[in-house]
Amino acid sequence: MTGRKAKRNGLTLAELLVAATIMLLIAGAVGTLASTVKSTNDYCQGYTSSAQHARVALSRIERAVIGAFANEQFPGCIVVAEQAGPQSLPHTLAIWYPTGSTVANPTGLPLISEIVVYGFDPAHPNAFIEVRSPTENTAVPATSDTGAWKTLTDRLKSSTTVSKIVLTDRLRTAPLTGTYSETLSPSDLRGCVRFRRLMAPSDSDWSQYRAGNKTWQNLPWPLDSYRLTSGTRLVACQTELQIAPGSMSSAAVTAIPFYGSASIQYELAR
After folding, report:
1. Tens of pLDDT along 251-260?
2. 102 or 13: which carries more pLDDT confidence?
3. In this structure, are strands 189-191 and 77-84 parallel, antiparallel, or unpaired?
4. How far apart are CA 231 and CA 228, in angstroms?
């Protein structure tokens, strides 16, 4: 075939190499995109699940605080802290929230059966629990007796005979000292939960008034809400829960913090 170019029936080696390289680049990009989509989906699902766990726990605490009884002897709720060296760990909350509509002693201290306790389960620190002891009809310690309160709440949280509800099993845990290890026992770990109580007037303000060191008018009443015979005290409870987005809840996991707050008001007699 003089003067004509021969017709090719395939690709050259160079063209095959270029085509294979392009296909590899496309496959790599698609793989990276698929991995990113999966990671994003897993994160969103984990966050949604964590938010649901936190919402259940925080809503139950909020309902208990809003419905709490309070008087001069017991301001509705009390935060019980554990002292770990120089650090104070306020990881337990007790609320005067009976199951019925009345209390045994409206002007005194609540009964143990009338309080509900929130904190982590000592046997399973990743579990955040709600505890009641409906058969104990003795009065709780005075709010100033921090040691007795820690003994009481530790006993209730560890007991196998009380009513115990697990609100979430995804609470992040961390060791008291050192770094996290899979070999640590539950007694070495603490659930990452914090409570904080704010009051106006505070216990210190009220004690100074009762001792005659502060006048009625100079107490820090919220919005100056006081009268000649009584004043309105505001008690607020703040909560922080660190919830793991998956089934793992160790210190090695990046947890998601959730916050809640609730408050009550009640009258203090002059």
Report:
1. 556 788 999 9
2. 102
3. unpaired
4. 8
Q: What strands lie across the sheet with 87-96, from one edge to the other?
A: 77-84, 87-96, 115-121, 124-132, 163-168
pLDDT in tens, 198-221: 999 999 999 999 999 999 999 999
What amino acid is encoded at 29 in this protein?
A
Residue closest to 53 by CA, chosen among 195, 174, 172: 172
Residue 252 one-letter amino acid: A
**Tokens at 201, concatenated:** 């007037």
Evaluate whether 270 touches 231 at the Cβ level (below 8 Å): yes
Contact 48, 42 (CB under 8 A): no
The CB-side HSE value for 255 (13 A sphere, CA atoms) comes to: 25
Please state the pTM of the whole predicted model: 0.83
Alpha carbon distances (Å) from 5 to 1, 238, 266: 8, 86, 101
Name the amino acid, one letter, at 4. R
